[in-house]
């Protein structure tokens, strides 16, 4: 392995780890103001919204309908109360169908 | 008593591994493609696997390949990796509210496994989450990422094209599956997800912010705005 590549990987590892580690360790045992606590508890749901849209619509370049079909499948299956694994597998099956049959 | 504690730790770890399985499936096509791209960019097998072992960050690893291919210096690639991963500051702070108290050493260990996907699975759980559950989720996700990166380099993306394309929905479908139970239960969750999604679409389609920043900004805007709105309503006595 070249020295440059080794340095690159170590450097990337460090700058990836720091943002993941600092808040979890520095904030341990610290009671934040109530408003901040509430905002932090809101983040998982907000981040899920941002992670899903618009990414889910753009999974196939140049074929928006593929994304729309996948979105519809995922939301429909999840709506029935199926567990996450079923939502994942079901959406894959629906899109395989889309590609092979339609 | 000691036995009971051990048993529940083990159960939590196994539950975590089960919850991590959908991430493992979602990472499969992404990691295979990463391995293949790394090979075509000129990385050796060892370099490819080492990067996945040490860094464990999908988006950042992909971007590093395209920057390497265009001959950009390693300082800039490292800086870019940092920028792309700034969103994890936010997730790490949020996860801290969610997790049971534990030693700093254990927290420093599972902090390594924090990705968008492991965060989503652990944080979408009801109530507090345990260290053992986090370990379980992350171990399965990490294993899939590292092994499939290597496999992608060795044998290419050796699943049929149609299936690989269809599997690109996997991580998004997982996010939808994680969000849905809370969406059904709480209007506040609906607002949080909708506002963040709308703002992120706005940023993405206008190209004002790059992906990493767009997710940070839209998440923060939504989490703060909705909190102010709900707190305001409570004061006036609407809720």
Highlighted features:
A: 102 residues; mainly alpha; 0% strand; B: 239 residues; 12 helices
Task: Describe the structure in your own words.
Chain A has helices at 3-26, 34-52, 64-79, 84-101. By secondary structure, chain A is mainly α. Chain A has a domain at 31-101. In chain A, helix 3 (64-79) packs antiparallel against helix 4 (84-101). In chain A, 43% of the residues are buried. Chain B has 239 residues and is mostly helical. Chain B has 2 domains: 2-178, no CATH class; 186-239, no CATH class. Chain B has helices spanning 2-41, 45-54, 58-69, 74-84, 87-98, 104-111, 116-123, 131-155, 161-167, 170-185, 187-206, 211-236. The longest helix of chain B has 40 residues, at 2-41. The radius of gyration of chain B is 19 Å and the shape is globular. The model of chain B has no long low-confidence stretch (mean pLDDT 92). The interface between A and B is large, with 74 and 98 residues.
Number of strands of chain A: 0
Overall form of chain B: globular
Strand content of chain A: under 5%
| Approximate shape of chain A | flat
Largest sheet of chain A: none
Model regions low in confidence, pLDDT < 50 over at least 5 residues of chain A: none
* Number of helices, counting only DSSP H or I runs of 4 residues or more of chain B: 12
Give the SSE order of chain B as H and E letters. Answer: HHHHHHHHHHHH
Overall average pLDDT of chain B: 92
Return the structural class of chain B. Answer: mainly alpha
- The helix fraction of chain A, in percent, is over 70%
Taking pLDDT < 50 over at least 5 consecutive residues as the criterion, the unreliable ranges of chain B are: none
How large is the radius of gyration of chain A?
20 Å
